[in-house]
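Q: What would this chain look like folded?
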Amino acid sequence: QVQLVESGGGLVQAGGSLRLSCVASGNIFRINDMAWYRQAPGKQRELVAVITSGGGTRYVDSVKARFTISRDNAKNTLYLQMNSLKPEDTAVYYCNADVTTSQDLRPTFRFWGQGTQVTVSS
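A: My prediction, written as structure tokens:
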């Protein structure tokens, strides 16, 4: 009923930049909080950045001052601007969104994108 599609991943050298996008589509009444997660090989999935429905943001310490999460509510799109990338940032990045799918009963569900690979070479 709701799909999240990430794009923008790829291979970049250390110190470079990438901008990830996540477009939500389907049965959407309202998108509430949104977030980016990442998972590196052999590591647990970790929360990278969150943007609330009110526009507030928070970041894991390792990406503060380098990453910026933003959203365009009119386009149902989430972004993650990643600057000064490090090899340690290499991971599959996942879009996550809490979505209200009906105006009437207003059920909410958490959806995941398929992930996009970010590889940072040293």
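The radius of gyration is 14 Å.
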